Amino acid sequence: MTRAEIGVYLPQMGFSYADVLHRALRCEELGIDSLWLYDHLYGPGAPDYPSLEAWTLATALLSSTERIQVGHMVLCNQFRHPAVLAKMATTLDQISAGRLALGIGSGSIEDEHARVGLDWGTFAQRSERLGETLEILHQAFADERVDFAGKHFTVRDMPIKPGAVRQPRPPIVVGGVGEKYTLPLVAQYADVWNVPTYALGELDHKISVLKKVCDDIGRDPATIVMSIEAVMALAPDDASLPGVQQLAEKRFGIPAFGLHEAGLIGTPPAIVERLRELQDMGFGQIVLFTHDRGSDQTLELLASEVIAGL
């Protein structure tokens, strides 16, 4: 079996650019496959805490690295007009020689919309907008041109040149598990489906729903890479495990992070065993929060004793 792609999720709240760049360079040097950022106007629940803007940060990181993929888990569709986003994405894919991963979702924090006067709307409305954006992105990547008239967006004969380097397109990652709106969009448009931490207790059910939706529209579900995000509390040895777990509980103990459902608390052999289980379930991409926010020690342990053991 091919090893799953292993990525590190590094929400940038509280980090300087030097902090994030150091971690990105370490990930690249260690052979970690991808690095992921969040897309919020401020740290969720912490509006007065420093937080670098997502797209600018990704551009800087891709300009300062050579191999690693960089993406967002996930972009908020409400923040950027889809034609502008398509132009941004093709440009950054050119700059990075095809290393952009384009994660996108319908939006998750109402408060940040209210603060800047962006329309929030119902989940159904946000999902409609996301669907139109995904259609526009597909046109832009396939044709280097967009001609689209929808309920929320109208784009008339808009060239998107140069197109993307990566073919057939930068991978479009759609995050979420909503059965009425999100999974149909995954089935229709996504190259990668990301299961967020809050749904880790429902993996079997959500996978079965996606397969049924794919069957209904005639898409082979095997053409969608299944991705999972999860918190990993990785300890170098048994003696240090209680302290590592305590820190993970402090930072990621609320139910939405699915710390215990992920099953990724332990020393390298236990983590390797659990990651193999996820691979056997069909997950081709595993994106990991680390308990200590990407310390050198944990990144090195992840590369040398976990990824090397898969």
Report on the architecture of this protein.
- With 310 residues, the chain is of the alpha/beta class.
- The chain contains 11 helices and 12 strands.
- It has an 8-stranded parallel barrel, surrounded by 7 helices.
- Strand 8 (172-175), helix 6 (182-189) and strand 9 (192-195) form a beta-alpha-beta unit.
Q: Strand-and-helix sequence, N→C?
A: EHEHEEHEHHEEEHEHEHHEHEH
Give the structural class.
Answer: alpha/beta
Tally of extended strands? 12
CA-CA gap between termini: 10 Å
Which outline best applies?
globular
Mean pLDDT: 97
Strand content: 15-25%
Low-confidence stretches: none
> Helical stretch count?
11
In summary, what is this structure?
This protein has helices at 17-30, 54-63, 82-95, 110-116, 123-143, 182-189, 203-217, 241-252, 259-262, 268-280, 296-306; strands spanning 5-9, 34-37, 69-72, 75-76, 100-105, 145-149, 154-159, 172-175, 192-195, 225-234, 265-266, 283-290.
